[in-house]
């Protein structure tokens, strides 16, 4: 399976077409960005770490019956995926208040939400990925009410599976971002990646609000030891993945 040509280069991945029209090659980069790419840097080894973590989690979710784009790992930082028509939506699931939810609502950091909150953001870098209301989502025709329902259901289900998985890694899944799209057969699938770039993960054993952070917030907030945290998440995810990921 040979990469044919560059399809697009994003902030975290380069996507290539292949000789098979329905299959793409995703190459995970070490580049790190935050605050809509206003902060740029690099996390050594991140490409391999995020590709490997995503691989374990996509395989685990597939086992639980969640359709994903993942097909095969071809190297530590490259995977073969089904080509999806990606919906221009970032589906965010929150279990604990952090980040923009705290900034925009005043909820204290660490507030455990009574039930998971599912939010839709407009995937549009030039607009700064704004939070959508359902009326705005329908106004822009980004999805139909049926699609919104299906996305919410899938996101909640994925949250249950991922929360359980990370709990077994002694990590609390605070919140995470998902991207979905349709494959050539019209099936809705989970795409993109699941990694410390796209999930907030807190070490269960730590109560200190900075020391517990095991995700991209270490980079965003200059907390140091970014690589160490990513490596530790990888180590725990692999250990759990090898145990069968809890079927
Ligand atoms: P971004 O800078 O938008 O975060 P990334 O570098 O994370 O982009 O990823 C590159 C692009 O690949 C994104 O636009 C993402 O939506 C897209 N993408 C992810 N999975 C697939 C897929 N299976 N098919 C088509 N595009 C995909
Ligand atoms: Mg991305």
From TrEMBL:
<keyword id="KW-0547">Nucleotide-binding</keyword>
<dbReference type="InterPro" id="IPR050089">
    <property type="entry name" value="SAICAR_synthetase"/>
</dbReference>
<protein>
    <recommendedName>
        <fullName>Phosphoribosylaminoimidazole-succinocarboxamide synthase</fullName>
        <ecNumber>6.3.2.6</ecNumber>
    </recommendedName>
</protein>
<keyword id="KW-0067">ATP-binding</keyword>
<dbReference type="GO" id="GO:0004639">
    <property type="term" value="F:phosphoribosylaminoimidazolesuccinocarboxamide synthase activity"/>
</dbReference>
<dbReference type="Pfam" id="PF01259">
    <property type="entry name" value="SAICAR_synt"/>
</dbReference>
<dbReference type="GO" id="GO:0006189">
    <property type="term" value="P:'de novo' IMP biosynthetic process"/>
</dbReference>
<keyword id="KW-0436">Ligase</keyword>
<dbReference type="GO" id="GO:0005524">
    <property type="term" value="F:ATP binding"/>
</dbReference>
<feature type="domain" description="SAICAR synthetase/ADE2 N-terminal">
    <location>
        <begin position="6"/>
        <end position="236"/>
    </location>
</feature>
<keyword id="KW-0658">Purine biosynthesis</keyword>
<dbReference type="InterPro" id="IPR018236">
    <property type="entry name" value="SAICAR_synthetase_CS"/>
</dbReference>
<dbReference type="InterPro" id="IPR001636">
    <property type="entry name" value="SAICAR_synth"/>
</dbReference>
<dbReference type="GO" id="GO:0009236">
    <property type="term" value="P:cobalamin biosynthetic process"/>
</dbReference>
<dbReference type="InterPro" id="IPR028923">
    <property type="entry name" value="SAICAR_synt/ADE2_N"/>
</dbReference>
<dbReference type="InterPro" id="IPR033934">
    <property type="entry name" value="SAICAR_synt_PurC"/>
</dbReference>
<comment type="similarity">
    <text>Belongs to the SAICAR synthetase family.</text>
</comment>
<comment type="pathway">
    <text>Purine metabolism; IMP biosynthesis via de novo pathway; 5-amino-1-(5-phospho-D-ribosyl)imidazole-4-carboxamide from 5-amino-1-(5-phospho-D-ribosyl)imidazole-4-carboxylate: step 1/2.</text>
</comment>
């Amino acid at each position: 399976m040979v990469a044919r040509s560059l399809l697009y280069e994003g902030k975290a991945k380069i996507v290539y077409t292949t000789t098979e029209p329905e299959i793409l090659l995703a190459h995970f980069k070490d580049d790190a960005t935050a605050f809509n790419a206003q902060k740029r840097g690099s996390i050594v080894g991140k490409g391999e770490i995020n590709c490997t973590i995503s691989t374990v989690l996509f395989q685990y979710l597939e086992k639980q019956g969640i359709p994903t784009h993942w097909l095969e790992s071809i190297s530590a930082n490259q995977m073969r995926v089904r080509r999806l028509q990606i919906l221009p939506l970032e589906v965010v699931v929150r279990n604990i208040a952090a980040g923009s939810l705290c900034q925009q609502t005043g909820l204290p950091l660490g507030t455990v939400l009574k039930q998971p909150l599912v939010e839709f953001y407009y995937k549009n870098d030039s607009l700064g990925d704004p939070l959508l209301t359902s009326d705005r989502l329908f106004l822009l025709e980004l999805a139909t009410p049926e699609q919104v329902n299906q996305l919410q259901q899938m996101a909640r289900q994925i949250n249950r599976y991922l929360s359980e998985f990370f709990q077994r890694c002694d990590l609390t899944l605070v919140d995470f971002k998902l991207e979905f799209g349709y494959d050539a057969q019209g099936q809705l699938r989970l795409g993109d990646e699941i990694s410390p770039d796209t999930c907030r993960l807190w070490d269960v054993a730590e109560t200190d609000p900075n020391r517990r952070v095991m995700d991209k917030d270490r980079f965003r907030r200059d907390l140091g030891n970014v690589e160490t945290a990513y490596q530790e998440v990888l180590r725990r995810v692999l250990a759990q993945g090898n145990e069968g990921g809890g079927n």
